[in-house]
Design goal:
The protein is an alpha+beta fold and 1281 residues long. The strands form 17 sheets. Strands 46, 47, 48, 49, 52, 53, 54 and 57 form an eight-stranded antiparallel β-sheet that branches. Strands 7, 8, 9, 10, 11, 12 and 13 form a seven-stranded mixed β-sheet that branches. A hairpin with a 2-residue loop joins β17 and β18. The two termini are 104 Å apart. It is found in: Membrane. InterPro entries: SRCR (IPR001190), SRCR-like_dom_sf (IPR036772). It holds the Pfam family SRCR. It is a single-pass membrane protein.
């Protein structure tokens, strides 16, 4: 079905296509389209129309379908068929007059009617059709006009060369030259005129006589309709040449064979100026050298604009007509048109062209061959307001300029290229000597050049891409359309060039000396000719050197200088800024080679660093002082400056000042320079801010010096080094070398290095630290003399140092009061009271952070017996840095120690009595560098025993400045240790002292053991039980708890006892283990903690089995029947009780009992003639009779009071240790087996326990302590019957 539908559809399409190809035309010898005999094209085959049934309606349809109006009255005649070989396509037509085509009238079918006449009808229609070209007679868009009405245009949807040739022929313009782009030939009228489609497809096997015969009558006013355009051979292309400022004036030329030749005769039948869109011709046209010169009324020229302003050799392309500037549109713009613009404007070669947005213009669809005299004379669409979206933009090589800026002369400096009106730098990366040579040649500075660093200047970078394998002559050859792209490398360095033609003037001294000229590697001397070396010339040289004016000048006749006199002589005036700007004197004066010039200037040049041996480079000239730009500052200049200032050698700087008062952009030493002040200085312009944030900055090694961070601790502590004005720490690796440590200790007059110390205190906020030192073993060399002093921001471990002459003062007992002792490498010595007065005591109290000295009249007795006294006295001057700056070499004669009492004594405490956060004066202590010995000091100081646990936690009172503490061996209490406040990178210290440790068990006097020493109750790992009795004493202090604990698998605490352990609280240790075994301890007087439950009534005992058994026993042994009955009853009760498992239901079937006794065993025991003792009966000590429970309550009772039965002969089930002190220690195994439930040994001693332990499974082999026997029932303690 689908296949049939497809066939029908294709057949329909084929039918439609064939119908669309049918065509009726009126044929005549003159080619007029609205008169002649009827010729029909059907399936591209021409034929005739018969006249059978011909009438007026038939005539109407003919004129209508050929778009020729109405039939003319009495115009129908018969004419002989031109050929008998052609078919009669249509005959017997019956038309009504409204049909659109003859084949729409009624007829018998195509070629279906026999027609034997020799003639056919010929008629004339009313319409008068004229065709013309829009712009010129033989070139332009094709227009049609019907009866003289406003013209319309043909759409070029299907026109080819055949139709175009026909058109040129119809117009009398000869053959076809070309079919141009339709848009280039259209005028402004096209937009608002009617447009008609044409279709010549019916004439595949023949040619139409007239283009009108191809019209189908359909109007097309859409944007897709483009006009049919032709250029016929009868069209002559013209241009005017010779006047760039007006392309509508000049020598008239015409195009012949793609060449332009002068026109010599004015024999045109049209206005040549109108054809060239130049207005009208001015009469008469002038003839020069037989060539015709024409000046038109319109003045037209091509102009380039950038940002709305006229620009030279770059910008958007515009046409100025009679003073009005209008854009050129870029709809078909190519490189050819752009190159013609550069050529026309005398701007060299095209670099690139692109398009910019625009809304309209005066010229569009420009198509140039490249040999035109102007863009205006290229083939294009001209109009007053052509709509378009883009405008061409061109950049020609003539827009490119080059210079060397901020250098010591015209031929040396930073390379800058003026591109599209802006001066831009060039990155040095990728720059070659060949490119430098091209720049030097372009600047007439010699044939060669070398790359050199100059001031970086301001502005952006220009990307350079020079052609490979080609020697460039101008730098513009390296520019492309991508040269202005955003430069990605922000750290790029600007290229600088020194050409071989570069020369500079210098003085042999600073602002005085012989006047020299350095050219390349050669040194020359300026002639001292009396004719040219005068006050004006001397002033010019001094001003050029920034040294004021010439104070005096003279001549020198040294032979070696005379032999190298500069070849030129200069005559200067007061206007020149440089000697080379002065006029050269020719010919040379007669005494040109007799002497050389010498001058002493009025000014001077000084250089310094802002902070003696480090800082910004400052230069003072002509009573002005300012900074040097850092762009061109080099390491070699730093070496010379540090040497000049006696500051050692330069070291790496880590700061970079962001603000400078830049006075000079650069300085350039010559080969004769021995001092930087003799260099050539390039001054900064007042409005140039490019270097404001980059002043030159130097750090010399002479600025480096060491110190210990806390002056009161003499010769030991954190080492700090002054670096760029800041005190920074030293990395541990830098202090490991003995020479480095000795250098620091010796410079500080502290002897030799003894050891490195851990860094004390908060980490500095600045990451900068001394990472490397390289010092030699020389007692007289300071740290600044080391060959390497390197600072780095890389992470490292900071360190301190102890020198051999270390010492510090500490009171003997307290932190801020007591006998003053000096601790030093040989032990301790007392300080003599001699001259140690209130001033010295005040300073010592301040050093110890104890406030001021507390003046008192009390006589303090000596608190320590000591024979050794410090061999130096103390006498403080004004504002000493520490008590040790008061030390002098005088040996005291008085052997009485100093006693001091300061105003403040630090308070060391714990936040929760004997445990908690460590605080000094209510300020937390940082956990950094804290160790166990410090914690012991805190506990002992607070009478809390020893420290058993240390941890770090977040501070309880915010995270502000907290104490950092560092103790030495001689510090007996925390208050004596070094301490300082600062930010803590870690948490603060929390400790637990032994006095705060607590123990408890789950039952009274026993059970699972728990310890609390870190704010929670926790189980312990298995441990040695040598001190269980002492442990029981601690347990008795706490109330037992039956609360359910969270299951612990990984335990973290153990008890470590020794033979001398007297206080079990000090045995608590942090030690992890994996164990699910519960450590239990049973002390004397052990009791379980359980809730008593009322005794339920006993269930009735079934009597059937008992009666049968009794009868059987009476038959066997009548004499012992009573004993057998009692025995059976007891055994049954015991077996029933054993089956009462915790969490399990007990099931009894309506009075039927299982046989709970192995009769073979029973008889065996009986046959042996003995009875079991009371201790052998399971039920007599601790078991509970099942008979006392009602059946329905067995589950309830089982859940309320789980029972376990220990088997003393089953060590796999549990370990029980009974010590000499009578304490039982037990570890339960939750994996014990219950398979032996029915094989209870006959000799079992049974006890009952209640365990408050969720992780311990119920054990059928474990007894329940606390159940006692009363008569034949088993009751719990303190329960009535």
């Amino acid at each position: 079905m689908w296949f049939l539908l497809l066939l029908l559809h294709l057949a329909h399409i084929e039918l439609v296509i064939s119908q669309a190809e049918d065509k009726l035309i009126l044929k005549n010898k003159g080619g007029y389209p609205c008169e002649g005999y009827l010729e029909v094209y059907h399936n591209n085959i021409s034929g005739y129309v018969g006249d059978t049934h011909w009438d007026k309606n038939t005539e109407k349809v003919v004129c209508k379908s050929t778009h020729c109006g109405e039939p003319v009255e009495n115009s129908v005649t018969d004419t002989v068929k031109p050929s008998e070989d052609r078919p009669i396509w249509l005959n017997e037509l019956k038309c009504e007059g409204h049909e659109s085509a003859l084949w729409k009238c009624k007829h018998p079918g195509w070629k279906s009617s026999y027609y034997s006449k020799l003639t056919v009808k010929k008629l004339k229609c009313s319409s008068n059709i004229t065709l013309s070209l829009d712009r010129h007679k033989c070139a332009g868009a094709v227009k049609y006009s019907i009866d003289g009405k406003p013209p319309g245009y043909f759409c070029n949807n299907s026109i080819g060369e055949k139709e175009a040739r026909l058109l040129c022929k119809n117009l009398g313009c000869g053959g076809l030259r070309e079919i141009p782009p339709s848009e280039s030939m259209v005028s402004d009228n096209f937009r608002d005129s009617s447009k008609m489609k044409i279709d010549c497809s019916a004439f595949k096997n023949a040619d139409p006589d007239h283009l009108w015969q191809c019209v189908n009558g359909e109007q097309d006013n859409s944007a897709s309709c483009k006009p049919v355009s032709v250029i016929c051979e009868g069209y002559t292309r013209l241009q005017l040449k010779g006047n760039q400022s007006n392309v509508c004036s000049g020598q008239l030329e015409k195009e012949e064979n793609n060449n332009w030749v002068p026109v010599q005769q004015d024999n045109f039948d049209f206005d040549v100026c109108q054809q060239m869109h130049c207005g009208n011709s001015l009469s008469p046209n002038n003839r020069t050298n037989k060539n015709l010169n024409v000046t038109c009324t319109d003045k037209v020229k091509v102009v380039l604009k950038h940002s709305g302003k006229d620009s030279k050799c770059y910008g958007t392309v515009n046409i100025e007509v009679k003073g009005s500037v209008n854009p050129v549109c870029a709809s078909s713009w190519t490189k050819t048109e752009a190159e013609l613009v550069c050529k026309e404007l005398g701007c060299g070669e095209l670099i690139y062209t692109e398009e910019h947005q625009n809304s309209g213009g005066i010229m569009d669809h420009v198509s140039c061959k490249g040999n035109e005299s102007s863009l205006w004379h290229c083939q294009a669409q001209h109009g007053k307001n052509i709509q378009c979206s883009n405008q061409p933009y061109v950049v020609c090589s003539g827009s490119v300029e080059v210079k060397l800026a901020d250098g010591p002369g015209r031929c040396a400096g930073r390379l800058e290229i003026k591109h599209e009106g802006q001066w831009k730098k060039v990155p040095v990366k990728g720059w070659t000597d060949a490119q430098s040579a091209a720049v030097c040649k372009q600047l007439q500075c010699g044939e060669k050049g070398k790359t050199e660093k100059f001031s970086q200047g301001s502005g952006s970078f220009l990307s350079i891409t020079c052609p490979r394998n080609k020697k460039i002559s101008k730098i513009s050859e390296c520019l492309t359309e991508n040269s202005n792209n955003q430069f990605s490398d922000r750290e790029a360095e600007a290229a600088g060039i020194t050409c071989e033609g570069h020369k500079v003037v210098f003085l042999s001294g600073t602002c005085s000396g012989h006047v020299g000229i350095e050219h390349g590697r050669e040194i020359y001397w300026l002639s001292g000719s009396k004719e040219t070396w005068n006050q004006e010339s001397a002033d010019t040289v001094c001003q050029q050197m920034h040294c004021g004016n010439a104070a005096n000048f003279s001549f020198n006749s040294t032979a070696d200088m005379i032999n190298k006199v500069w070849k030129n002589s200069f005559s200067c005036s007061s206007r020149e800024n440089s000697l080379f700007e002065c006029n050269q004197t020719t010919p040379l004066p007669p005494d040109h080679h007799n002497s050389t010039a010498y001058v002493k200037c009025s000014g001077n040049i000084e250089m310094r660093l802002t902070n003696s041996c480090w800082g910004k480079v400052r230069i003072r000239v002509e009573e002005k002082e300012g900074d040097m730009c850092g762009d061109t500052w080099t390491e070699d200049k730093s070496v010379k400056l540090c040497e000049k200032l006696n500051c050692g050698t330069p070291i790496k700087a880590h700061n970079s000042p962001k603000d400078g008062d830049i006075l000079f952009k650069s300085l350039h030493p010559t080969n004769q320079t021995t001092d930087l002040t003799q260099s050539i200085f390039v001054k900064n312009q007042d409005n140039d801010k490019s270097c404001k944030q980059k002043p030159a900055y130097v750090v010399c090694s002479g600025s480096v010096k060491p110190r210990f961070s806390i002056p009161s601790y003499k010769c030991f502590g954190n080492v700090e080094v002054e670096y760029e004005g800041k005190w920074i720490p030293v990395c541990e690796d830098a202090l490991k070398d003995t020479n480095n440590g000795n250098t620091i200790c010796q410079e500080l007059k502290c002897g030799d290095a003894v050891e490195t110390l851990p860094y004390f205190g908060p980490a500095p906020a600045d990451k900068l630290a001394i990472s490397n030192l390289n010092c030699i073993a020389n007692a007289n060399s300071p740290l600044s003399a080391c060959s390497s002093v390197t600072a780095s921001t890389a992470a490292c471990k900071h360190s301190g140092l102890r020198c051999s002459e270390w010492r510090t003062m500490v009171p003997d007992k307290k932190a801020c009061s007591g006998t003053v002792l000096v601790h030093w490498r040989q032990g301790l010595s007392a300080v003599s009271r001699e001259n140690f007065n209130e001033t010295e005591k005040e300073k010592l109290c301040q050093d110890m952070d104890c406030g001021g000295y507390k003046s008192t009249n009390e006589i303090h007795p000596q608190t320590i017996e000591i024979d050794s006294f410090w061999n130096k006295s103390f006498s403080c001057g004004e504002n000493p840095g520490s008590i040790w700056e008061c030390e002098n070499k005088t040996t005291p004669s008085r052997k009485e120690p100093v006693f001091i009492e300061c105003k403040k004594e630090p308070s060391v405490s714990l936040s929760q009595g004997c445990r908690g956060e460590v605080r000094i004066d209510d300020v937390p202590v940082c956990a950094s560098n804290w160790d166990l010995s410090y914690a012991h000091k805190v506990c002992q100081e607070n009478l809390c025993g020893n420290a058993v646990f240390i941890e770090s936690k977040a501070p309880s009172k915010g995270s502000g400045n907290i104490y950092h503490v560092s103790c030495e061996k001689y510090h007996s209490i925390i208050g004596q240790c070094r301490r300082t406040k600062g930010k803590c990178d870690k948490n603060v210290v929390f400790i637990t002292c032994s006095e705060s440790v607590k123990f408890r068990t789950t039952e009274k006097h026993g059970g699972v053991l728990y310890v609390n020493y870190r704010d929670k109750w926790e189980r312990v790992c298995p441990f040695n039980h040598s001190q269980n009795l002492k442990l029981c004493e601690e347990i008795d202090k706490e109330t037992p708890s039956t609360s359910t604990e969270i299951k612990q698998v990984n335990l973290e605490t153990t008890l470590e006892f020794t033979d001398v352990t007297m206080d079990v609280r000090r045995s608590v240790k942090r030690s992890s283990c994996e164990s699910t075994n519960q450590v239990k301890i049973y002390c004397p007087d052990y009791e379980t903690l359980t809730t008593a439950t009322p005794t339920p009534p006993r269930p009735p005992i079934p009597t059937g089995p008992i009666i049968v058994g009794v009868i059987f026993l009476l038959v066997v042994v009548i004499l012992i029947s009573s004993f057998i009955r009692m025995y059976v009853r007891r055994v049954r009760e015991s077996r029933a009780l054993a089956r009462m498992l915790p969490g399990k239901d007990m099931e009894f079937e309506s009075g039927d009992y299982e046989d709970v006794m192995d009769k073979d065993n029973e008889m065996e025991d009986f046959s042996r003639g003995r009875f079991r003792s009371e201790t052998e009966f399971v039920s007599e000590n601790d078991g509970r009779s099942v008979s006392s429970l009602p059946y329905d309550d067995i589950d309830e009772a089982d859940e309320a009071r789980p029972l376990t039965f220990p088997a003393t002969t089953a060590p796999a089930a549990q370990d029980i240790n009974v010590h000499e002190d009578g304490v039982t220690y037990e570890v339960e195994d939750p994996q014990e087996s219950y398979d032996d439930i029915d094989t209870i040994p006959e000799t079992a001693q049974t006890t009952a326990e209640i365990h408050d332990s969720p992780e311990t499974p119920h054990d059928l082999n474990t007894a329940a302590p606390g159940l006692v026997k009363r008569d034949e029932d088993y009751l719990e303690p303190d329960q009535d019957k």
